[in-house]
Design goal:
With about 525 residues, this protein is an alpha/beta fold. Helices cover about 60% and strands about 5% of the residues. It has helices at about 10-15, 25-30, 35-55, 65-70, 85-95, 100-125, 130-140, 145-150, 160-175, 180-195, 200-210, 215-220, 225-245, 250-260, 265-280, 280-290, 300-305, 310-330, 345-355, 360-390, 400-415, 430-435, 460, 475-485; strands spanning about 425, 445, 465-470, 490-500, 505-515. It has a five-stranded mixed beta sheet. The longest helix is centred in the C-terminal third of the chain and has 31 residues, at about 360-390.
């Protein structure tokens, strides 16, 4: 029976007498169990996609989510106003070694992605050897998850690495009920929670899978689940204390942004969540169908014969998809499908490692060629085309203008003060960009209301600050003018332009508001220290 790649007979002939151009791939596959093939794949993955990002974003700068992550990670904290602290810790540690540049954060994003794939392989090799390990990784590389989703190093992206690590530790704890694995399972699950609270669905998946598994009595009859629970609470304790002493600000933020939908809309959103996950897996699914061919008919029998560990992973995977859908309907809110992408590895591992047939080497080679071909097209065609397009069609968040706008704000600040710009506010994207790209690296401060309890202290305000809004953002302009002391404020507008390798592109207008530092000698008061 023919598949999309070739017939089984042709696959067998190719394995016996491979074409010369296939031999480097065959040698590479032979190095999987020798220990060098997977590291080589992941090193190449990092290098290629960092180059892609460098080319594709020549006419743009880092995404606001990444800039926000750095702003929150400038100091070691147990939390911030939006998310748990893990992503900030990662940035804090990374920037203690690497410089504050776009390429550095692109390298961080792809390194995180490579760690995620290495962790997936750690699970795969618990069940299979050789080519099937590579097939798992290549199928995941056919999704947009580990390249395009991962490039925004934020609270979602860091789950790509924490979920498979936590899953591996839980799997080992469930199987061995060993004390150290139990501690590791609890600690890594807590680490996933410190990445994003959405990881509660992974933890819930662990609980449901353990309860539904045939070996539940053995597991729950041991000390393992209770040791894991205790270890997780110990790791979470400092953050829980921080939440208790800061009015649980991340939860307040989540409630403000989640909105409330009708039951009907929530059901539609839950269906869209499932469809989005399915759409993400179309290309890997088609590739697997091409590999399996007529052997797909064995899947029901293979599923019944799943070993204990793969069954556990399958149950976890189902739970991590179903639980968010139930929560979305119950809470009348919406979860985008990309929030579940970090868990898709579970299904790929179960399908590939659970297959009861061996895979002729012909197919992994062809799969590798498919991935290699797609990467080549992305580097040679997509990346430069994206850069050219974005030079004349700006990003919706205005990323084209970040660095020139920041340079102009910094210049104007130093016209009125010799001190470094202390902090910045305004449109979040511009404010985060100013904190990152300005040589002064001012502290980010959200636009506050006059009676906001989180507003800067009077002593801080006396040092002055800068704000930027896009000129068509009237709400932002009104807010920054509302809190600025009129006698010390200088408002201006300027035009910034995107440039790609010397070629001018689209322009944008920015409204800046500079509040000069308080100077008592040169002050004409309009109120208590208002000038």
């Amino acid at each position: 029976m023919r598949t999309s790649f070739s017939s089984s007979a042709a696959a067998a002939r190719s394995d016996l007498a491979p074409a010369r151009w296939r031999r480097p791939f065959l040698k590479w596959l032979g190095g999987v169990e020798a220990g060098w093939a997977v590291p080589l794949l992941l090193a190449g993955f990092i290098a290629v996609w960092v180059v892609y990002l460098q080319i594709a974003y020549l006419s743009g700068y880092l995404h606001p989510d990444v800039l926000e992550t750095w702003s929150f990670g400038r100091t070691w904290q147990w939390g911030n106003s939006k998310h748990p602290p893990l992503v900030g810790w990662a940035v804090y540690l990374w920037t203690s070694v690497f410089p504050l540049t776009d390429w550095s954060f692109q390298l961080l994003a792809m390194t995180n992605s490579a760690i995620a794939l290495w962790s997936v392989d750690l699970i795969s090799r618990h069940f299979v050897r050789g080519d099937k390990r590579i097939v798992v990784l290549l199928l995941l590389m056919l999704t947009p998850v580990y390249q395009f989703h991962a490039q925004r190093f934020n609270a979602n992206a860091i789950l790509l690495a924490t979920w498979p690590i936590a899953t591996y530790c839980f799997l080992r704890s469930f199987e061995t009920r060993d004390l150290l694995w139990a501690v590791a399972a609890g600690a890594t699950a807590a680490l996933a929670m410190l990445g994003k609270y959405y990881s509660v669905f992974l933890v819930g998946g662990f609980v449901i899978a353990a309860i539904a598994h045939p070996q539940r009595r053995t597991y729950f009859g041991s000390f393992a689940p209770w040791v894991s629970t205790a270890a997780g609470l110990v790791v979470l304790a400092p953050h829980l204390y921080w939440l208790a002493t800061t009015d649980a600000s991340p939860f307040t933020y989540a409630l403000k942004t989640s909105g409330e939908a009708s039951l009907g809309q929530s059901l539609i959103d839950a269906g869209s969540f499932l469809l989005g996950i399915g759409a993400t897996m179309v290309l890997p699914a088609l590739s697997w169908i091409a590999i399996a061919g007529s052997r797909l008919k064995q899947w029901p029998a293979d599923f019944k014969a799943l070993n204990s560990g793969l069954l556990l992973l399958f149950l976890i995977g189902i739970a991590t998809v179903v639980l968010p859908m139930i929560a979305a309907v119950g809470l009348r809110t919406h979860f985008p499908a990309l929030w579940a992408w970090q868990g898709l590895f579970l299904f790929v591992i179960v399908v590939v490692c659970g297959a009861g047939f061996s895979i002729e080497r012909f197919y992994p080679v062809n799969l590798a060629i498919l991935v290699f071909g797609m990467v080549t097209i992305c580097l040679v065609v997509v990346a430069p085309a994206h850069a050219i397009f974005r030079n004349t069609h700006p990003f919706k968040e205005g990323r084209n203008f970040y660095r020139p706008a920041v340079a102009e704000l910094t210049r104007r600040w130093h016209e009125v003060s010799d001190a470094p710009l202390p902090f910045v506010s305004g449109t979040d994207g511009l404010a985060f960009a100013a904190a990152f790209y300005s040589p002064d690296h001012p502290q980010y401060q959200h636009v506050w209301e006059p009676d906001d309890s989180s507003a800067p202290s009077q002593a801080t305000l006396e040092r002055g600050w800068g704000s930027m809004c896009f000129s068509d953002d009237e709400g932002c302009i009104i807010q920054i003018e509302r809190v600025a002391p009129p006698a010390r404020s200088v408002r201006s507008e300027f035009t910034v332009q995107s440039v790609l390798m010397g070629f001018p592109g689209v322009t944008g207008r920015v409204t800046a508001l500079i509040v000069r530092p308080y100077d008592e000698k040169n002050c004409i008061p309009t109120g208590p220290k208002q000038c």
